[in-house]
Amino acid sequence: MAEYIRVASLAEVPEGELRGFELPAGRIAVAHVENELFALGDECTHEGCLLSEGEVDESADTVVCACHGSAFDLRTGEPVEGPAQDPVPTFPVRLIEGWIELVPVPAGGDA
Ligand code: FES
Q: Which CATH code fits 27-94?
């Protein structure tokens, strides 16, 4: 079974923001919204821009790509607004004693 790996301290991902991390399994973006953490693939499925350079929409629980405005659901990775049509992967993430840890294997097992 895949294991959690430590990627950052909570202080590195301030509330309402997201950060991208280069991991052996690829780039993963971590978002911090209303005391919840979300981890999703950092590459937009439209034309590959980094979602970590976009913005979190806290009212919609989405991350909005900075390039052409695609919005992805933080929980499911599904696009809720185009032009992107395909979802980004999501990853299990947790907070342990102030450290953000995630499993760098997509939650649905669908790589
Ligand atoms: S690359 Fe993200 S919306 Fe186009």
A: 2.102.10.10
